[in-house]
């Protein structure tokens, strides 16, 4: 059965690029990882998942983000900074043909209201001395024919800088397993920080992008959650975070492959002895993945998420596309 499933998945992967060329709605993903500050299409990754116990299961990772309402805040284009208020919907998780074998049996559905801000800090380009480009001066008064935008763009092109985004807000939603039996009602605070370089440094040349996400939530579990079945169905507070780092492998392998490292961590605050003895007070998941330019994805994961009662190691081969 494992051979049949693997052959089926390889057939899907091989046929996927041709499918994407024939369809105007379906294409391999070419979006940058960690785009946490803008709406994203419905993204699906069909995988063959090899479990630690030797079994295999066909699954799909999915994510959808939609900005329902956006209101511009204070913006200063001449200083490369701005802000925004938005109402955002998020759906993401993993589903498998056999729900009992889902190694990441955790689906999130959330509505968030947040304030976001971005700014680009570019280095002082006064030291730049380029006779062919008078706009390279940091003093616009020296060259009245140069616009502020032209001077600023020249500074960025020649010297570079750092793009920094942050987001802070309130979220309300549900967490559930694939069968929608175990469920948590969630309300809390969250913050996201996003950093990348735009210069000639090692960080910029390799397209290194770093994202840090933090959250503090109040959780109301139902009677079917592992925590409640262990004997504690009370509400609780949980701190969580995620670190995601992605970079291009083009300079290393000569092709535009993208590598991503992700670490997710969940910890219940002041857990009861029942929860601690059941080893349900903390969860973490580490994932390493490589995305090819054609949409083929290879990844390795280790750990567990809320609603999982034990850790698992998985290896996945799949194809990622967007609607």
**Main pleated sheet:** 12 strands, antiparallel, barrel
Order of helices and strands: HEEEEEHEEHEHEHEHEEE
Strand order of the largest sheet: 2-3-4-5-6-7-8-9-10-11-12-13
Q: Could you tell me how far the N terminus lies from the C terminus, measured between alpha carbons in angstroms?
A: 30 Å
Identify the overall geometry.
globular
Q: What integer is the average pLDDT?
A: 80
Residues in helix, %:
10-25%
What are the segments in which pLDDT stays under 50 over at least 5 consecutive residues?
1-37, 124-131
| Structural class by helix and strand composition | alpha+beta
Q: Rg, please?
A: 23 Å
Number of helices: 6
User: What is the strand content?
Assistant: over 45%
Number of strands: 13
Protein name: MetA-pathway of phenol degradation
Keywords: Signal
Verbal overview:
The protein is α+β, with helices and mostly antiparallel strands and 323 residues long. It has a domain at 64-123 and 160-313. 15% of the residues lie in helices and 50% in strands. It has 6 helices and 13 strands. It has helices spanning 2-22, 148-158, 202-205, 226-229, 250-253, 273-277; strands spanning 27-28, 40-50, 56-72, 81-96, 107-122, 161-176, 183-197, 209-221, 236-248, 258-269, 282-291, 296-303, 312-322. Strands 2-3-4-5-6-7-8-9-10-11-12-13 form a 12-stranded antiparallel beta barrel. The two termini are 30 Å apart. The model is unreliable at 1-37 and 124-131 (pLDDT under 50).
């Amino acid at each position: 059965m494992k051979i049949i499933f693997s052959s089926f998945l390889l057939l899907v992967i091989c046929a996927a690029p041709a499918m994407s060329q024939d369809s105007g709605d379906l294409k391999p993903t070419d979006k940058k990882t960690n785009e946490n500050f803008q709406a994203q299409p419905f993204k699906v990754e069909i995988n063959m998942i090899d479990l630690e116990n030797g079994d295999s299961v066909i699954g799909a990772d999915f994510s959808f983000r939609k900005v329902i309402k956006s209101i511009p805040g204070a913006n200063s284009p001449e200083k490369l900074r701005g802000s925004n208020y938005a109402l955002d919907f998020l759906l993401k998780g993993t589903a498998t043909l056999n729900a009992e074998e889902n190694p990441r049996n955790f689906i999130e559905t959330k509505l968030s209201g947040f304030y976001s801000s971005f700014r680009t800090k570019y280095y002082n380009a006064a030291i730049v001395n380029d006779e062919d480009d008078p706009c390279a001066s940091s003093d616009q008064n020296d060259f009245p024919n140069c616009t502020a935008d032209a001077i600023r763009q020249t500074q960025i092109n020649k010297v570079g800088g750092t793009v920094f985004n942050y987001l802070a807000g309130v979220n309300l939603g549900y967490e559930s397993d694939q069968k929608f039996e175990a469920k948590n009602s969630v309300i809390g605070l969250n913050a996201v920080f996003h950093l990348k370089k735009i210069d000639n440094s090692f960080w910029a040349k390799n397209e290194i992008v770093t994202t840090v996400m933090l959250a503090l939530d109040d959780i109301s579990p139902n009677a079917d959650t592992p925590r409640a079945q262990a004997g504690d169905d009370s509400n609780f507070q949980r701190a969580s975070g995620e670190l995601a780092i992605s970079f291009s492998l083009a300079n290393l392998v000569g092709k535009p492959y993208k590598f991503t490292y992700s670490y997710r961590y969940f910890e219940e605050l002041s857990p009861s002895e029942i929860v601690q003895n059941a080893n349900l007070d903390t969860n973490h998941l580490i994932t390493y993945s490589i995305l090819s330019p054609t949409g083929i994805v290879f990844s390795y994961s280790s750990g567990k998420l809320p609603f999982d009662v034990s850790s698992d190691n998985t290896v996945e081969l799949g194809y990622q596309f967007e609607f």
